[in-house]
């Protein structure tokens, strides 16, 4: 089997490398010649644990390669995956499908023999229909099927998610296409991974529905955390008590500063817009979007309150900028709301993140960029944990107290135990715990 992966972003690169690990010949395509040149030289453009070694081993084995030549890659492929970005469209909140449709036109012109075109990008319901229409218009003689095969990769654990997924969803309209997809996922079939075959539109909706539901769980537990603070309850215990119910489960019941990243913010908004377009509003998801947006803004207020109502002239140390640990992704990270708000309030802000510093510099200004955890907190009046990297979980408390000028600690990820921190003399504030 031969696969062409169009797009070497997060989804395309991880999927291409993992398919090659399955023994499939994969060629990854991107218009960005500098990115392709870096990949050829073993330089990985994103941070994902284990991806560098996976890419290197499969390149060495001759199963994984990189090119800017889309036509040649498509001509030799049994399946062509579209794995380009679908960002939120400016102005209206819908998913921007420009890159998907541009790639489709180029693919259509290069098809040679029966080929399965696979939408791996997250796209609104009906996109596969439009992809099929475009290919027929560009190349009426083309022999092809269009399939939806949504990704369910979590940043920071994407390789494990691909290799040992909860399920594989395949939306196909012909048995011929389903057979090609069975061959591609044969390795997972052999380990009895659930493979769900549906219609194409159903598969597209499964992706959005899954992300929206998980986002809703996060917003729900964040609202419960606020209620816990008012009522004197503990959100950790609430989440545990809920999560032990198998109908609910414990995943995504972790209170914090709100969700971010490449998927939840844009996918929830896109689902809302699609539903509104068809006059079938999704009130729960609309509320989830609003709750999360307000949540991130409220976190700066929480820090200011912990500092006595004002941060003007005070030094605030921020540990963590990426939206979650084990990634350098800054997209819709809570830090993009929290840090500027503190700067605008007159704070002297120092920041550090183990992986996202270069990316963060594109979005955040007016701060001091530090090179390590302890440099960041030197002479700080207040320390804020914004991303739960492991190195922040293991802070040397004695050294922290020695370096800081003040004793205010705002733990927006509930990393530490309140009683322990207060016994160490900190004015400790966390999420949903008093």
CATH superfamily of the largest domain, please? NAD(P)-binding Rossmann-like Domain
What number of structural domains do the residues give? Answer: 2
Give the count of helical stretches. Answer: 19
Q: Nearest-angstrom radius of gyration?
A: 23 Å
Can you name the CATH architecture of the largest domain? 3-Layer(aba) Sandwich
Spans where pLDDT lies below 50 across 5 or more residues = none
Number of strands: 14
Which outline best applies?
Answer: globular
Q: What average pLDDT do the residues reach?
A: 96
Q: Strand arrangement, largest sheet?
A: 3-2-1-4-5-6
**Could you give a short account of the major beta sheet?**
6 strands, parallel
Oligomer: single chain
Key words describing this protein structure:
single chain, 434 residues, alpha/beta, Rossmann fold, 2 domains, six-stranded parallel sheet, 19 helices, globular
Protein model, in words:
The protein is an alpha/beta fold. It folds into two domains: about 1-200, 3-Layer(aba) Sandwich (Rossmann fold), CATH 3.40.50.720; about 295-430, Rossmann fold (3-Layer(aba) Sandwich), CATH 3.40.50.720. The chain is built from 19 helices and 14 strands. The protein has helices at about 10-20, 35-40, 50-60, 70-75, 100-110, 125-140, 160-165, 175-185, 185-190, 200-230, 235-245, 265-275, 285-305, 335-345, 355-360, 375, 390-395, 395-405, 420-425, and strands at about 1-5, 25-30, 65, 80, 115-120, 145-150, 170, 195-200, 315-320, 350, 370, 380-385, 410, 425-430. A six-stranded parallel sheet has the order 3-2-1-4-5-6, sandwiched between helices. A six-stranded parallel sheet has the order 11-10-9-12-13-14. A two-stranded parallel ribbon has the order 7-8. Strand 10 (about 350), helix 15 (about 355-360) and strand 11 (about 370) form a beta-alpha-beta unit. The longest helix has about 30 residues, at about 200-230.
